[in-house]
Amino acid sequence: MSDKLHIVGGGMAGSEAAWQAAQAGIPVVIHEMRPTVETFAHKTGNLAEMVCSNSFRSDDDEQNAVGLLHWEMRQAGGLLMEMADEHRLPAGGALAVDRDAFSAGVTERLRAHPLIEVSGEEITELPTDGQWIIATGPLTSGNLAEAIRAETGTEALAFFDAIAPIVYAESIDMSVAWEQSRYDKGETEAEQKAYINCPMDKAQYEAFIDALLAADKTVFHEGETAGYFDGCLPIEVMAERGRETLRHGPMKPIGLTNSHKPEEKAYAVVQLRRDNALGTLYNIVGFQTKMKYGAQTEVFRMIPGLSEASFARLGGIHRNTFLNSPTLLDEQMRLRSRPNIRFAGQITGVEGYVESASMGLLAGRLAIAEMTGHSLPPVPSTTAIGALVTHITGGAEAKTFQPMNVNFGLFPPLDGVKGGRRGRKDRYKAYTDRAKADWQAWLAVTAPTEEAGAA
Fold it and tell me: In what residue span(s) does the MnmG N-terminal domain sit (predicted)?
């Protein structure tokens, strides 16, 4: 078998792939160019640094596809889910983490593993031999991106990923804002009060929309196109789609009662979610933006409760590249023209921290099998991980391929289950029950072992 598995990129996917391989006895080299070569969005040289948000989204493994993805990764001994659970913060029904502690924990575990080496050089060309996983994510360096384009013979698709601002908790006016999760969701008081809410009446909302639309925005360079992924739209782009769009999106007031004025119904509500374990930082939920810095402070301080807000980080925007995976990757996640190279993470066209990490987990296991002379049966498309990999390696329409979060629409339909909104709860439970049984069965026949890795 090949001597080592080389992984380019130490983000979510690369970190999880490295862990899976090393745990199976495969020596791993993680090639991570940070902090020697910096990116626009990253602030540290740690592995698995969280950039856009501190949330892994819903942790409900019975009614939510991403919660099911959490469950599958935990069952497979995923390092990132272990670290997420260890550094969890109150967030209602979501899994949010202290991002700095999470990243530091992942970095410590990987660097301490006797079979993992972390190398700091930038990989600029596609390797011709050895076993490789490219998991460079949305901020793939220009040199490597050009090498990928040259190999695939096509322009890499791109969209722009916007980052939400972070506010210092002490600068939020709690005589105006209040703590509450939507519908008081959560089993503990901390979960039920995981969000800070800032209410707006109609006049305040209209003035906010006017300011948002008029604010100075980042101008794209010639030749760039703003093909945003709908799950991460800049707030001003949403506002441009209609004045009521935000009030039915990230600023929806439903399920919230102002503890200061319980008899008054807010016209719109801005939510802030805890961003660290100390509770000193809060990110503005859904407020990714491409406004210029000066405009951001002016516009966001119009939000009731944030008139004196101090920002630990303002929003930003960066280019996000991904492959047209249905045409370029085989069912083993290998580049068809160079089968010694696998791709994993966001660069394959999945969207989200957990989705990226899950594709790293799978790519790692597929590489383990190939390096030890084994073959794995396909991951059942009835599972969350299987649904994602099936989508990106052939289930999606290549001509219209766009980044995708995990969702039940990717799963094979179930016979005899009621459709429509009224049947949704029973249908989702049936999806997750089927997925759990199929995932456990797949793990039972494919689980890597240290003995296999050493063979």
Answer: 5-373
Tokens of 26: 């495969």
The 10 Å Cβ neighbour count of residue 369 is: 17
- Integer Cα distance of 341 and 130 in angstroms: 8
The answer to whether 270 touches 300, Cβ cutoff 8 Å, is no
162 three-state secondary structure: strand
DSSP-derived letter for residue 220 is P
In this structure, what token pair is assigned to residue 292?
Answer: 């210029």
Q: Phi and psi for 162 in degrees, rounded to 5? A: -105, 145
* Distance in angstroms (rounded) separating the CA atoms of residues 383 and 277: 32
What are the φ/ψ torsions at residue 405 (nearest 5 degrees)? -75, 160
Between CA 292 and CA 188 the distance in angstroms is: 39
pLDDT at 416: 82
Q: Is the pLDDT of residue 165 over 50?
A: yes
pLDDT of residue 36: 61
> From the annotation, which residues make up the binding site for FAD?
9-14
DSSP strand E in 32-110: where?
Answer: 55-58, 88-89, 94-97
Our measurement of the distance from residue 438's CA atom to the centroid of its chain's CA atoms, rounded to an integer in Å, reads 24
Q: Give the residue-averaged pLDDT of 266-282.
A: 90
Contact yes or no for 368/347 (Cβ under 8 A): no
**Residues 58 and 148: beta-carbon distance below 8 Å:** no
Distances (CA, A) of 383 to 149, 436, 437: 32, 7, 9
Residues in binding site: 9-14
Residue 40 has pLDDT above 70, yes or no: no
Comparing C-alpha atoms, which of 84, 15, 67, 29 is closest to residue 361?
Answer: 15
Query: Global pTM?
Result: 0.79
If you ran DSSP here, which 8-state letter would residue 87 be given?
A: T
